[in-house]
Design a protein that fits this description.
ADH-like_N; 10 helices; Quinone Oxidoreductase, Chain A, domain 1; 2 domains; GroES-like_sf; zinc; metal-binding; binds zinc ion; Rossmann fold; seven-stranded mixed sheet
Length: 336
Amino acid sequence: MVNMMKALVFTAPHTFEYQDVPRPEPAPDEVLVEVKACAICGSDVHGSSGENGRRIPPLVMGHEASGTIAQLGEAVQSWAVGDRVTFDSTEYCGCCWFCTHGMHNLCAQRRIVGVACTEYRKNGAMAQYIAVKARTLYALPPTVSFEQGCLVEPFAVGMHAVLRSGLAAGQTAAVIGDGTIGLMTLIAAKSQGAQVCISGHHARPMQLAAQLGALDCAQLPQLTAERGADVVYDAVGSQSSFTQAMELVRKGGRIMVIGNHARTIDFPLQRCITEQIDVQFSYSSAGEYPVCLQAIAEGRAGLTGLWQSFPLAEGAQVFDRLVHRDESLTKAVLIP
Ligand SMILES: [Zn+2]
Ligand SMILES: [Zn+2]
């Protein structure tokens, strides 16, 4: 007899159905996680139009999740049923040169959970259960809630950028972009003891940023004796955001580009050389989950107020609000 479960299935462009589907069976190196919280990512919202080829229906989306272990694959030894966990949204091989050098975000075998493209199809966590590779699991400290736990995935993206940039306590950072990754980068930078300014256009996230202790980029000249920011994080990645980053960064400073809204942009080569500006790039995350979990557990990274929760059964309506850019909704977390 096949065990069934409830899942929010993406059945056609702009269409989600709450259905009974077969429960996944964990492979020998996997565990079955009973999902307790799964956040909707901007990439899920974009993908739901069916246009970018990354969410080919039918598919269960969801790569930002947490839950408890319900069943172990035959070869899994280091985990136990009942453990509270979150997991890396990237499934990687674990043995190639990149994986063994701390860069599993660059693994050629990487597959994103909850994505279906021409190369692969991997059901995600907008369901009661999901099977994930044991090597991608991270234990949730007891004080970290499942909702906070599911947000560690985007938080790790911000943390990856902040740690790559070498931002130090007492330095001044500027974040361009008030989407989830912009806010997570802000939180990551603050958790490292930096002073952070933000630039964005949306009322609610900017209000949240202010509550999180972010200053306005207009204050940057006073804060830095006119020098500019030590590090600027571009969480948009367009011609205009990069131009703004060049305006905000100090001589000898660093621009870390995280967003890639534009495929190509004009690059101010001469100014970067004569002002010795480092331009760096950051892609996804590469094992920053424990750093993020510790920052949350120690109260250095308040994620409070960042999300709103809804029952998974109402997922279709929630997607509809996000697709239509309902300003009252920032980050939605679905609870199975
Ligand atoms: Zn995501
Ligand atoms: Zn690999």
